[in-house]
Every structure is written in structure tokens, then in C-alpha cells.
Amino acid sequence: MSNIKYDKNIFRTLLHEESEVGGIPYDMSINFGNPNSPINIIEVINPYCKHCALSHRIIENLLKEKDISVQLVFFVQESSDQLTNKLVKLLFALKEKDNTNNISTVLNDWFEQGIDDDEYLKEKYNIDENLLDKQQIRLDWMTSWCKRNNIQYTPSLFINHRLLPKIYKYKDIKFLFL
After folding, report:
1. Which segments within the chain are labelled E, that is strand?
2. Which stretches of 66-135 are DSSP H helices?
3. Is this model's pTM higher than 0.85 or not?
4. Model confidence over 112-128: pLDDT tens digits?
5. Domain total for the chain?
6. CATH no. for residue 52?
């Protein structure tokens, strides 16, 4: 079964049977890699999800090895807790302040080191409240996008705007490239 599962032609066929999601504006996602790459991965995560941390580590390794574009979107809802919202705002404020230079470090600190103190991160990266407040529009947009695209779980991975087929797990993605 695994030989068939990882056959690139079968993967592509199954992928094209999945529904397609609309594009994500550059300013509504955290972006890594080559924006002109023919391979775009949309990674929808929750910052408190253990599997999201593992998925993101795999994606980071792919970024080092492959010419891909990654758009990171957060699974936020009106019911999301304040800690989730604060971290997402902090990441987007950091993106606005210095592009993506420190975002990988913050995500690594968050996922790998367990540094989930938004006040510490805000102070470390010199992010002021006004810049944080400006990020609410991004949270609202991600909430709407997740609803519109019926995101049910995290991590959710989309390859070229198509949901990773259910027979694949996030761990499989490293075997599928291409």
C-alpha cells in the first residue's frame, strides 16, 4: 500500500479531486520560501496544537530542501482564547515591523522551547500595543477564511490550494515532494 500511496501520479490525481480554496492575500498570512515557486503550501495551525508544532517542523525542513512557498494561517475563531489571539497578533505585528526575519525564531521558541509568554515576546521584539491592535483585522479575516473553507481540524495542509487528501497525514508530506 505505501508504494502506491507515495506514487507521485496517484498523489497528484487524489490531490486534484479535492476541492480548491481561494488564494490568500500575502498580508493575511505569514510567508516563507519562494513566493514564485510552483509549489504553494498553506499550513493552517493552532499555536497550542502539538501536531501543528510537528507539522510546522516538517514544513520548515522542506523549506530548507525544496523550492516551495509556504503561507501560514492560524485557526482562530470568535471563541479562540485570548492567548491564541495575542500570539497571532504578535506574529503579524512582527511581520509588519521587520518582515519575517524573527518569525521563525518566535515560532521555534513557541513550539520547541515552550516560551508562550506573549508579554516576554512583546518586550523582546519591542512590539507596542498600537501595532498589536492593528492586527485584529487579520484575525477577523482568518476566522472568516477558516469558516468559508470549512476548516475542521489542525494542522490542515493545502498543496497548491487543494486540501491534502485524507489518506495522507502531515508526516507524509516530506515523501510527496516532488
Report:
1. 30-33, 40-45, 69-74, 156-159, 162-163
2. 82-98, 103-111, 118-124, 129-133
3. yes
4. 777 667 788 888 888 99
5. 1
6. 3.40.30.10
